[in-house]
Specification:
Structural class: mainly alpha
Number of strands: 0
Radius of gyration: 17 Å
Order of helices and strands: HHHHHHHHH
Distance between the termini: 26 Å
CATH class: Mainly Alpha
Length: 172
């Protein structure tokens, strides 16, 4: 009984560390892209930086290079601005960021899509008895039908059904 408790405690402590790394990483990506709050797309990027490496392994299973994700996200923003009628010059001007906020200076906050990621991660974590990993973040994002993160995966040529299979294989 005591060994079970110790094992559960260690898993919870590691999960808390990984979630903290995920949130700080998402915030870092948001700030480096000139945004105040991280969205699902920033959690997607941060998942690839978690020490377990499972997000990278999922992409490797699909023979996809994860280094192109950030540019694919930026392209989604550019396309949205084009569709809103902005010129290339205006877009270029708006995409130059000079001020990056230190994430430690304020309470952690996200966009609605980031909140959806965290809420779904929390709910799914309560149901499973395994450690939290980057593949779990991909699993949540793969379940999203709309938003920049979902469009980014589509633009990268990642078929949702294939992604879900690769995630399931990695989590086994």
């Amino acid at each position: 009984m005591i060994f079970s408790f110790i094992k559960s405690f260690k898993r919870i402590r590691q999960d808390m560390k990984n979630i903290s790394l995920l949130c700080l990483g998402a915030e870092k990506h948001a700030h480096s892209n000139g945004e105040d709050k991280p969205g699902a797309e920033h959690f997607l990027l941060a998942a690839f930086e978690l020490p377990d490496g499972t997000a990278k392994k999922v992409f490797e299973r699909l023979n996809i290079d994860s280094t192109g994700i950030n540019q694919a996200i930026k392209n989604q923003h550019i396309d949205a601005l084009h569709n809103a009628g902005l010129s290339d010059e205006s877009i270029e001007e708006n995409l130059e960021f000079t001020e990056i906020t230190d994430p430690k200076l304020k309470l952690f906050d996200t966009t609605p899509s980031g909140q959806a990621v965290l809420k779904t991660l929390y709910q799914s974590n309560k149901k499973r008895n395994t450690a939290f990993t980057g593949a779990h973040v991909l699993e949540v994002i793969a379940s999203m039908k709309y938003g920049i993160a979902a469009r980014t995966l589509t633009v990268m040529g990642i078929e949702n059904s294939a992604l879900k299979v690769a995630i399931a294989d990695e989590l086994r």
